[in-house]
TrEMBL record:
InterPro entries: Nitroreductase (IPR029479), Nitroreductase-like (IPR000415), Nitroreductase/BluB (IPR050627). It comes from Streptococcus downei MFe28. Keywords: NAD, Oxidoreductase. GO terms for molecular function: oxidoreductase activity, acting on other nitrogenous compounds as donors, with NAD or NADP as acceptor. Residues 3-72 form the Nitroreductase domain. Coiled coil: none annotated. GO terms for cellular component: cytosol. One of its GO terms (biological process) is 2,4,6-trinitrotoluene catabolic process. The keyword NAD applies. The keyword NAD applies. Signal peptide: none annotated. It holds the Pfam family Nitroreductase. This is Nitroreductase. It is an enzyme of class 1 (oxidoreductase).
Length: 94
């Protein structure tokens, strides 16, 4: 069976591929000082209907798989960011 033979399998695969683009967009935004957040768990049918109504997608050929929000924070977080030392989180294998 080919990937394209099963619509659900094809959708699941293509949905996972969107995370590659999301990661690149979120990394680029962070480098520009823009915060971002990936979004799942939304009403897919309702979002697709809104996008189709505004002629952003063609519902017979396209659909939304994930979303991401971008924006500038109003204020800095209460707690400073901290990172563990590299030696505590990276193991090099020879």
């Amino acid at each position: 069976m080919k990937l394209a033979d099963n619509p659900r399998t094809l959708f699941d695969w293509t949905a996972k591929q969107t995370y590659i683009a999301l990661a690149n967009m979120m990394t680029s935004a962070a480098l520009m000082g823009i915060d971002s957040c990936p979004i799942e768990g939304f009403d897919y049918d309702q979002v697709n209907a809104i996008l189709a109504k505004h002629q952003i997608i063609k519902p017979d050929k396209e659909g939304i798989a994930s979303m991401v929000s971008f924006g500038y924070r109003l204020r800095d977080p209460k707690h400073p960011r901290s990172r563990k030392p590299r030696e505590d989180v990276i193991t090099w294998l020879d």
